[in-house]
Amino acid sequence: MTRLNVSTSQPQEWIELSRESDALFGTRPWQMLLERSFGCRTIYVYNKVTGFAISVFRAGPFKIGYLGFPVGGGIGVSPSLSSLIDALCIARLRGMPVCLRIPVSTFAQQADLDFPYQSNPETVIGNLQEWRLELISKKLRRDVRKSERSELIVSEAAEPRVGDKLYEMYSRTVKRRGGAIRYNAAYFRELIKLAKVQPRLRVLTATDGTEIAGFVVIARHGNTAYYLHGGANPMYQRFSPSDLLLNSAIHRAQQEGSQHFNLMASPSNQPSLVRYKEKWGGITRELKTYTLPLRPSYRLFKTAEWVYRFIR
Predict the structure, then answer these.
(1) Do 164 and 233 fall within a single domain?
(2) How many whole angstroms separate alpha carbon 159 and alpha carbon 66?
(3) Minimal CB count within 10 Å: which of 22, 47, 55, 294?
(4) Do 136 and 201 sit in the same domain of this protein?
């Protein structure tokens, strides 16, 4: 394979690659969304037929790279993780992050890297075109029918300012589950802005005409629809807004031709969340997120990260 180039500015080859692969998370608008939301920057590793986008985030005094945020992988023809690693080690790019996080989904690729990793359960509905609600459990059908008889209406978020309400709902949902808040209000506003011009991204809300009862964010990347985020207002629990929204999102993904519906990884300490995803017909496997050290200061970062997790 031709040697991979490394650049902090988007090359022309990248535009063609992302267009041909139907890869939302590889496009420049997606990278700009992340940059505006989090103040991160992007490193491109590429040649004429394959490429990787690395989003570099700040974590205190350190810089952390994340490959193909948020789902990992590259774009183009048979992207090789080993060739990516070689290119980064040779480049010695100024401002290189202390480490690179590499998510590897067993649903998308097989790769065992000789680096430390953390694993989480990832749930995916395969063969999406054959999925039918009637073929799942009777209880799920009852729950969905109940939500469809409610006063809630599913529609696409129209105004960026709605992102502030979605962030509040997201953060409260995460806190109730004992999780860590990883996103901000600016990110949700940017999602709505991009969804207005990018059909592969949808921000769906369930409302009663005045208040938002729940929301989901769905992104189509390649032949897979990804459930990026979701949240619900406990005051509307009797209407099952999460069931209404997820059912609507799955059907829309089917209509758009997606072959899989990825419900994303769940925290290892939330088995109830995994069970909720599996009740929709999803299969759960292990998602490994490897950590590749890139600079000597990684040792300091590793210690700081351990201390942070210990005192949280």
Answers:
(1) yes
(2) 29
(3) 22
(4) yes
- Shared domain for 87 and 150, answered yes or no, is no
Contacts of 252 (CB under 8 A, 6+ apart): 202, 218
C-alpha to C-alpha distance for 248 and 245, rounded to whole angstroms: 5
So what's the pLDDT on residue 308?
56
> Which residue matches tokens 């700009």?
32
Amino acid 167 reads Y
| Helix, strand counts (H, E) of the chain | 9, 13
The Cα angle at residue 121 between residues 226 and 75, in degrees rounded to 5: 40
Task: Fill in the DSSP letter of residue 238.
Answer: G
Nearest-angstrom CA–CA distance, 119 and 105: 10
132 and 238 part of one domain: yes
Mean pLDDT of 147-173: 94
- The token duo for 145 is 């029918």
131 and 265 housed in the same domain: yes
- 162 and 223 inside one domain: yes
Name the pLDDT band for 287 (thresholds 50, 70, 90): very high
Q: Which pTM value belongs to this model?
A: 0.93
Torsion of CA 293, 117, 42, 6, to 10 degrees: 50
The residue-averaged pLDDT of 11-40 equals 91
Domain with 154, as residue range(s), is 127-281
Going by C-alpha positions, the residue among 94, 97, 83 that lies closest to residue 51 is: 83
Tell me, yes or no, whether 111 and 135 share the same domain: no
